[in-house]
Amino acid sequence: MAAPCSPTTCTSGSGCPNLWFRVRLRYPGVDAVGLSLPGVPGLVAGSNGRLAWGFTNAYGDFAQWVALPEAAVVRRRERFALRGGAWHEELLEDSPFGPVLARLPDGTPLALAWTAHRPGAADLGLFALLEAGAIEEALTIAAQAGMPAQNLLLAAADGRIAWGIAGRLPERLGPPAALLAHDDPRARWRGWIEPARQPRRVDPAGGRLWSANARMVAGEDGERIGDGGLVLGARARQIRDALLARERLDERGALTIQLDDRALFLQRWREVLLTSLDALEHPLAGEARRRVAQEAERAAADAVGYRLLREFRLEVHRRVAAAIVAAVRRHDPAFEALELPHFEGAVWRLLEARPAHWLGPHDRDWDGLLAAAATAVLDRAAVARGGLEGWTWGERNRALIRHPLSLGMPWLGRWLDAPADPLPGDLHMPRVQGPVFGASQRLAVRPGRETSGLLHMPGGQSGHPRSPFYLAGHEDWARGRPAPLLPGAARHRLELSPEPKASAALPWAGRPAGEAADARPRTR
After folding, report:
1. How far is CA 356 from CA 95, 280, 359, in A?
2. d(Cα 447, Cα 371) in Å, to the nearest integer?
3. Cβ proximity of 70 and 100 under 8 Å
4. Cα separations (Å) of 516 from 97, 245, 289?
5. Residue 504: which pLDDT band, with cuts at 50, 70 and 90?
6. Which helix (H) or strand (E) holds 379?
């Protein structure tokens, strides 16, 4: 069985300081280490010596549009204070099912019923994991926690592993038409699924579990979670194959998997691009072909070939989508294209079948569409700074990790923001990182062996640029260097010592103006 390690958690970017806060909590019966949110009394991901846990976004479907009669809409006006003393008045529409946020073409109001608006959707129940000692206990705690639903991976010191959903799931039964209606008795979305019925997998036969924001389960369990934007399974498959290739896995091995920037997902596109470049009459075609042949296997920061390949795939996607949208707009000029996270499968089927009626009006055939896409990419590279040679992936994929002050005053960025490092890795591979998205932390830990644990976190956890801990650890994340999970020797100690006689409710109550209780932090 592979050694239990916590997975990468992904978010839409990071900042200075990072979203997460490194914490070690020690009190009678508990010695836990990992990541928390600033000021929150618990760990979001980490290990307590008996269990290790981590999360990825589940991307489930936890919202429902409900069609309402006009009589069910409750309208109210709210006033908002503006800078400078002015006021703004807004008409808001609400309903018993949720806020009215859209309307059907015939004017029917649509209310958004969302689990986050329900009682019990948010609490601190997850932090009971700090004292959990068994897989089943942890799964029950997680299933009852009030939090956005996440994929939870668990590993126990005795080698047991499990996956489940952390956060409550809605009990949603009935046909889609019934769920849309406000008064259909067949629809049931009134409470939460019982913890024992929530999707979970414990001790799988293969001894491995993985999660990468893709679909985890199918069938009835998959329906309970739904699809709220699940990503392609390319990254999950690459992680799975790496796990299956190892009999055992230690912390450095887990970090190696998380730093894997091989572009396996794009290799079938590589052959398409090479064939298109062979037939292309463009001054850069020969050099581009050489670069793609030699540099497209990994999303390395200095790789021109990888960027050419990636841009080519997206250009083909754009051209196919434009042809489809143009065809629809002939019947509905107001049609707007939707975001299609799984468009890859449709495009690849079209490239295999090559139906002429799916081409745009300017494409003579599918080879012509591919040649036009390759030409567009080479034309962009030709006019870029540094030309084709300077058109590296790292030039495009630079870290954009900013301090809150520089967001309002950009001229401060040169002193406050993290370095704009060229980054290896991309969306569809384990080393998932881009300018404003990616691995907000990398954690590898075996419960009971935290001294060997590793942790990466971009941006650091101090928000003060004069602090010696500002951006501390960021370079380890950017370079992929192993960094310890546990803290080192204490260099500072902050002790809060309230005056014993101070009121528990109001420390300054009953004191003359200007006199306060002695609750000052003392640094040693």
Report:
1. 49, 21, 6
2. 54
3. no
4. 48, 64, 73
5. low
6. helix 366-383
How much of the chain exceeds pLDDT 90, in percent? Answer: 65
pLDDT exceeds cutoff 80 at 174: no
Nearest to 26 by CA among 100, 130, 114, 140: 130
Adjacent-strand bridge partners of 298: 262
How many whole angstroms separate alpha carbon 487 and alpha carbon 76? 52
Q: Are 32 and 43 in contact (CB under 8 A)?
A: yes
Reply yes or no on whether the pLDDT at 5 is more than 60.
no
E strand or H helix at 307, and its extent? helix 304-329
How far is the CA of 72 from the CAs of 101, 109, 372, in angstroms? 14, 9, 53
Q: For residue 426, what are its two tokens?
A: 């991309």
Rounded Cα distance, 237 and 430, in Å = 9
The 3-state DSSP class for residue 245 equals coil
DSSP letter, residue 158? T
Residues 239/213, Cβ–Cβ less than 8 Å: no
Q: In whole angstroms, what is the distance from residue 370 CA to residue 313 CA?
A: 10
Place of tokens 């307590």: 48
Q: What is the mean pLDDT of the chain?
A: 88
**Could you tell me whether strands 87-94 and 9-11 are parallel, antiparallel, or unpaired per DSSP bridges?**
unpaired
Check: CB of residue 284 under 8 Å from CB of residue 269: no
Q: Are 100 and 109 in contact (CB under 8 A)?
A: yes
- What is the C-alpha R_g of the chain? 27
pLDDT (tens digit per residue) in 382-413: 999 999 999 999 999 999 999 999 988 999 99
- Amino acid letter at 520? R
Say how far apart CA 18 and CA 101 lie, in whole Å.
32
User: Can you give the pTM of this predicted structure?
Assistant: 0.87
Structure tokens belonging to residue 10: 């992904």
